[in-house]
Structures are given as structure tokens and as C-alpha cells.
Amino acid sequence: MIEVEVTGGTAIVRLAHGKVNALDLELCQAIEATARDLDADQARAVVLTGSGRAFSAGVDLDRVTAGGPGYVADYLPALIGAFQALFDLGKPVVAAVNGHAIAGGCVLAAACDHRVMSAGTIGVPELLVGVPFPAVAIQIMEYALGPVGARRAILDGRNHEPAEALALGFVDEVTEPEHLLDRATVAAERLAAIPADTFRHTKRQLHGDAAVRRDAEPATLALWQTGAADGRIRAFMERTVTSRR
């Protein structure tokens, strides 16, 4: 589900879960646990990437619609936990976006300190699905894109290919697939050259405090449960699948 290899002080973390690394309950729990472990171990930096043709295609909407409100009650806290643990990881974290990074996959990439992309598309279509963002996801998108860029990305909901993603700030570098991990590792090592205590402290300062936004999470959960039950998520999936045929 998650593969970790430490090379030269940098942990290469690869999502390896199904065809597109969709974020289901189990993968979210594994991401949170892996991030917490990496924050405490000896690795100086982390590179996060995906396997196959996707970095992560986002929330597993099939599981959400099949499981309904009961599944969502367990799932949404796990999704928030995965986002928060990655965002809180006090070491340099670089995303090596090897393919599609959609919705929750985009948030995972945005939670990293530096993003290198080689293929696929990236964007946050949550509102098109009909569900709201968890508070930490809003904070992460603002960290990556700034308040104006995050507002535009969230309300627009479009996915962007690498060149456009670079221009809009979703990623910091674009490279060829064969150079992706090398470029990401170089970026991770550059950040890891900063004294670890200084880096961790500064990262916390940059992230700020999302406590006020977290007060809204019960309403977020309720709307996700509604979306799982009233057909809006299923309708989005049907429209999307039809448009790709």
C-alpha cells in the first residue's frame, strides 16, 4: 500500500494502492501512520510519489457512495488525519508528481514543501463533486497557492496539465518522467541542508494556526454524508465517466 525506501538520508515514499492510488479509508490511515513515523525517525527529508500512472486520483468515490453516511463518518476523519500528518511533518517533504494528482491527491501534493511534476493533471474539483473541503485542505491550498490562487483553484475546479500547473503555482518545477525522482531528491537534499531545528520551526510559522477553521469540521462531515446519500457524488461520477468515453 505504501513503500518506503531510505537512500542517502532521504526517504522515498511511494503510494502503491490500486490502479490510481485512490484515497480510501485504509490508504488514508497508512499515510497518516507513515508520516508520523517519518517525522520521528532518522531520515532527514522525504520524497512522496505514486506508482503507475497516478500520484493519487483523490478520494475513492466508489467506496464513499457504496458505504454511505456510515463509511463517511469513519472516512472523513481519516482523510483529514492523512492531510494533517503530511502537512505537519517537520522535515522537508517534496512531492514527485508522476501522474494525475486530483482532488485529495492535489491536496497531498500541496501539503509538501516543494512540488516537481512530470505528467498527468492536477487540480481540486471537490466543489464540482458537491462536497466541501475539510478545513486543513483549505489551509494547505492557501499555503501552496496563496489566498487568491487557492480561491480561484477551489471555485474553478479545473485540472491542469504540467505547464499550466507551473504557471499557476500548483507545482514548482516541471521535468521529464525519467528525471522526476532525481529532481525531487535534489530539492529534498537542498532543503535538508537547512539546520533541522530551524527548518521545523520555520515550517510551523509558515503553516500558521487552523484551529478556528477546524471548528467547522462537524458541518463538513454532515455535508459529505449528505453527498454520499443523496446522489450528488454518484451523479458527478456518471458525468465524469461519460465525458471520458
Strands of the widest sheet, in order across it, are 1-2-3-5-7-10
Provide the CATH top-level class: Alpha Beta
Largest sheet: 6 strands, mixed
Q: What order do the SSEs take from the amino end to the carboxyl end, as H and E? A: EEHEEHEEHEEHHEHEHHHHH
Query: At CATH's second level, what is the architecture?
Result: Alpha-Beta Complex
State the low-pLDDT regions, or none. none
Structural class: alpha/beta
Number of helices: 11
Percent strand: 15-25%
The dominant shape is globular
Gyration radius, to the nearest Å?
A: 17 Å
Name the CATH homologous superfamily. 2-enoyl-CoA Hydratase, Chain A, domain 1
Mean pLDDT across all amino acids: 93
| N/C terminus separation | 29 Å
Domain count: 1
Helix content: 55-70%
The CATH topology annotation reads as 2-enoyl-CoA Hydratase, Chain A, domain 1
Number of strands: 10
Brief digest:
By secondary structure, this protein is α/β, with parallel strands linked by helices.
Walk me through what this model shows.
With 245 residues, the protein is an alpha/beta fold. The chain has one domain: 2-enoyl-CoA Hydratase, Chain A, domain 1 (Alpha-Beta Complex), CATH 3.90.226. It is 57% helix and 16% strand. The chain contains eleven helices and ten strands. It has helices spanning 25-40, 61-88, 104-110, 126-129, 135-156, 162-168, 180-192, 196-207, 211-214, 217-230, 232-244; strands at residues 2-7, 10-15, 45-50, 54-56, 93-97, 100-102, 114-117, 122-123, 159-160, 173-174. The chain has a six-stranded mixed β-sheet, with helices on both faces. Strands 4-6-8-9 form a four-stranded mixed β-sheet. Strand 2, helix 1 (25-40) and strand 3 form a beta-alpha-beta unit. Helix 1 packs parallel to helix 2 (61-88), helix 2 (61-88) packs across helix 5 (135-156) and helix 2 runs antiparallel to helix 10. The longest helix is centred in the first third of the chain and has 28 residues, at 61-88. The model has no long low-confidence stretch (mean pLDDT 93).
